[in-house]
Amino acid sequence: MLFTNIIHRVDTRADSLDALEFQWCAARRLDLPTTSLLSYPALFAPEALDTVERLRGPTDELGLHFHNFSNPHFQEKYGTRESALWLLPRPIRTALVDEAMTTFERRFGYLPKSIGGYIIDAWTLAYIKKTYPSVETAITSCFEEGVKMFYGNNRNWFLFSDGGPWNPYFPAKSNALIPAAHSGEAIDIVAVPHLNRDMIMALNNRDDLFASHPGNLFRARINEGAECPYLFRFIDAWERQAALNGWSYLNIFVSSPWMSARHWAIGNIDDARTLYTRMLEDLREREARGSNRNTTMDGFGQSFRERVKPGDATLCHWKDEIKQAKREVVWVVNSHHRAAFDLNRGGALVDFRPYAGRVDGNLGPECPALWNGNHPFLISTEHCGGHWNTSHHATLTNGIHSLSTADRRTRATVERTDEGGWVFRTDPLRFNLGDHRLVLRSAWEVSTGAEIRIRRTILEYSGDPADLRLSEIFLGRPGTHEYPGDLREITLWADPGSRLPFAYSSREETIGNARAVGADVPSLGVRVAMEAVSASISGVLGDGMLFKPCFRLELSYAPEPGKDVITCLTTRPIKSP
User: What total number of domains does the chain contain?
Assistant: First the structure.
């Protein structure tokens, strides 16, 4: 089942209130429930409050959105020009939350069950839940709005929240971007994204332009007047995710300025409003067919709690919905890691965020991270591409010629396993290794656990199989943006025993019959390892250099056609046994 949530934000400008009335009436005509979140200034604006009370119906939900503090009331009362909730000093933050909650309760007679913000860190979420237990559901982040968004908005959109889930989840107490492993670790709030994103564009572009937001699609210039077939393919794609996970969620959060004639990105407001109306009509038709349930934030939160528990995993198999070409990616997230596999590169792991170290993700002047809400990566082709391209992939050689699985485009099929996880398999990859034909299939098994199990199978080889060597290669570098930090904290290791401190020496050490190779990364609190399930013939530890600042882990095998070569990629806390 796809759950769809239509969200408005109540702002105070006259044209915004006019746009809000258009949105609310468009949903009312179709009998669609809505959630409207009042911005901070709206709590003190009689005209905005009167508009809300006039428009809301019995199926509509009201809540709070912690937004728009660049106003004289806030600046005079709290003595700061800081305009982002997540960056305020904690005493001001809690006072602001208290003021907004009590003001809302005085006006409407109850406390909200749903709240929102562009970023709400774990410390703030925990305070809200403890002080106002009525809150059950919260918008806590903008999926993948980090460095790319910063550059794309002329370096004045100070919103850094890369590295978290794209779907709803229960946030961990240490970091609101990490899914909790169990109920004792969870903040008892269902976290939902600000918007759904195009999961391919999230890897290689500004994904805010390609999202569940008709106004943003006008900004991306992907429309032709009021026509935008991509929007409806986008909704189809989120319906398909429900077949893989048992549920899916589509958040349509179009704040009222985007439906206003004064919005800078909208050339023709009639086209924008027509497309918005067509989208609502489409959601209503899907509900009539039984593939979609339109609900409020609180209503979705209740349904989510019935279906999902802390520690569960989510998978997304995304195809190219913009050009309708053959590119595909597979994403998986659980309480141990988030990973993205690009089938355009043979299934290479191109984004890898290890959660096992439970990095503190709190923000503000009291916190080490200050403004940087991005969860660190170990692999990011987006930020570490080109000459020092981080990834996980495989190579094959016959001693004369070699090839990389990342050099072939392929597609994948995804299936649920009996254990409740997934396995996704590539179509066979066909290569010429010199004069010899070689056909390889790759598969990955993912679930709720700490390991990703990788299977490589040579289906055909026209040469002498005894000459073949297959290597799994992990190229990693911790960070949150494209500029490398000091990697000398990292220690590379192998089993049987070998240790290689990272020193920018460009050394490589080979270990015969290695059972595992790995790296300890103290800044992430993580030990990443490749463990040989099949018998390996060697392992390699590779120290990087300043011109190519990443470490190298490698396990090599002597593959036999028709037999699986299995490797486990794992992440665990460094201090674990």
Answer: 2
